Amino acid sequence: MEQYIIKGGHPLVGEVEIGGAKNAALAILAAAIMTDETVKIDNLPDVNDINVLLDAIAGIGATVNRIDRHTVTINGRGIHDFSIEYDYIKKIRASYYLLGAMLGKYKHAEVALPGGCNIGSRPIDQHLKGFRALGAEVEIEYGKIMAEAEKLVGKHIYFDVVSVGATINVMMTAAMADGLTIMENVAKEPHVVDVANFLNSMGANIRGAGTDVIKIRGVRQLHSTEYSVIPDQIEAGTFMFAAAATRGDVTVLNVIPKHLEATIAKLEEIGCEVEEFDDAVRVVSKGDLTSTHVKTLPYPGFPTDMQPQIGVTLALCKGTSTITESIFENRFKYLDELARMGANVKVEGNSATIEGVEKFSGARVSAPDLRAGAALCIAGLATEGITIVDDIVYIQRGYERFEEKLRGLGGIIEKVETEKEIQKFKLKVG
User: Fold this and answer.
1) Is there a catalytic annotation at residue 117?
2) φ and ψ at residue 233, rounded to 5 degrees
3) Which residues are annotated as a binding site for UDP-N-acetyl-alpha-D-glucosamine?
4) Residue 181 is inside which H or E element, if any?
5) Is the whole-model pTM more than 0.90?
6) Where is 274: in which H helix or E strand?
7) Quick check: 128 pLDDT over 50?
8) Which residue ranges make up the annotated binding site for phosphoenolpyruvate?
9) Interatomic CA distance for residues 72 and 10, integer angstroms
10) Which helix (H) or strand (E) covers residue 147, if one does?
């Protein structure tokens, strides 16, 4: 089992290049099968989730050609199987985007009920509500969602809760339905906008992505396109909080600063200096940082995917901070691990109280999910001594060359598999 071993206590300094947005890329890859022509997508992150989805797409008969680590062409003409098996779904939840894509194009799809990170229940009732509103019959049998329609017809759909997944999935189906679909109370995240832009580049007619109301005029067919995925705001934010926690000076390159406003606001609140450029953001963390209060909210609020990273940072800030998690109920598991490193935390229901400590101490901890795993690595980098992070398979699902990028900023971190490698690292770093 692979682990990260970290020798902390050094400020992270330098520049780091941010890759394509995993969450946008997953939905865009699914949408790419909605035409019989070849689609080229670049700025893909080279992470496990992307590779698993590409395998799933090839598995149903699409032609998938990896041009390089970050570029792929997909042609959906050869699709002959409308069933996505559990083996793919249990590895990555986002395989369910193939449901919306296949239902839109072929009027038929079967997808196993999803898995993914264990951060709380993520019901798919809003997806099914949207598909049914467009005229599909949807059944759940034998652990599968089966959706079929003789004809899909545009409808006025009001979502009961704001859901990124449902917004994207139903938007894909509606792109090839007859007539006008109006979706209200939709998610406004940058990756929703990116998927809409991608579909429009294939000939879809989608307006209003990024606002509360999306209007979609269905088209009969979509065509080939070339498209570049937006930068990953969560990867960027992770390195920004790594700079804060280690009292460093890091410039994140290839970002859209507008997407990082909530993260920047919190960094400035706790006492960091933040400088924005056209496509870069610099975070400088000097001296004492102070406590603040955070509540996770749908975009443009503070992202739930940045909650563990700010949690680790706040545990090293002077004073008492609170975090209220309003999206996922199991998102505080990392705080138990952080307590092993000396953090002073108390969780009650969906809120956590964090009393800042001067420093952590190195310990062996386990990554409970993707973002929490990255946050525990930040804790290790901010800690005097040695930290070992287990279960890093979660981190590799969503961060490309994570340890290499941290080493590029002066972090002392290595991937190891055996006790012998751990001892070798300890001897090397003294």
Assistant:
1) yes
2) -65, -25
3) 93, 122-126, 305, 327
4) strand 180-184
5) yes
6) strand 273-276
7) yes
8) 22-23
9) 38
10) strand 144-148
